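Work Package 3 (structural annotation) set out to generate three-dimensional models for the target panel prioritized at the project kickoff. During this period the team completed the workflow that converts sequence records into discrete structure tokens, so that structures can be stored uniformly alongside our sequence database. As a representative example, we reproduce one entry of 294 residues exactly as it appears in the project archive.
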Amino acid sequence: MIRQTLALLLLCSPALAATPAYLDVATSPKGSTAADMFRDLGQVCTGTSFLRQRQTSGSVENLELLLNNQVSLAFVQLDVLKARDQIDQDPRVRALKTLLPLNFDEVHLIARPAVTTTNLLGRTSVRGIQAFSDLQGRKLGAWGGSVITARVLSAKAGVPMTIQEYRGRDEAMAALNAGQVDAVLAVAGQPADWIKALNPAAYRLVPLNIAPARVNGFYRPATLRYPGLGEGVTTYAVQRLLVTRDFKTPERRAALLNYQKCALSKLTQLQETQGFHPKWSDVTFKEQNWPWFK
């Protein structure tokens, strides 16, 4: 009887009840910036065993899972949040909170190399995508949050195009290789390993020639630097946030606030630990445009 009473007291003690069993976190595919940063945070803030990673196709799926209560936290691009709020006018989005404002991910516009031809009169012409504006009336492939980014940039730049949505990057790149789309747009933290691995003889990074005045707000100018694929390619970047539901349960709030506090206090360690994602050097934990979880 005494042992049973002690066991019951231990189970009901505040110390043991202070941490939830687990909370699922939607990241992105293995090797993505979000997945790597979640891994790095777990190594620095060791008391995170209650967080369980769920790899997904990216921001759109992550947001959907979070809104439908299938995960508790999600890595989401700011433009995806804004589009769901301002364009789709989904009232549920307003209830989400920023746990951590993270890095800015660059927009990568990938195309096959342009082909130069000379006619019988000696006049040369170039066929292919050499800038974002060349996509007018053409087809652009994208997946996940990149689909939203493509739609927003197309509207802001005044460059109408057909945006073809795919299930992932392999499917989108296969469509590019088959000539089914003229370019592929991918939002990813630079340097993205899969982009670094592209064959420079078969692919080029194309500049986003959109006037800054047209994309004012949550996009900021950026430059892509990938040897062979394009040095000094002008583009834009959008911030990625780790967002969560606005929990009221004391043990969940306490666990998440401790995780947040740890991350905010360990930024230098995250930036200087060898092997961690290089995008930590861009993080300030200050730039964001969505209410904090507090």
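Residues 1-17 have pLDDT under 50 and may be disordered.
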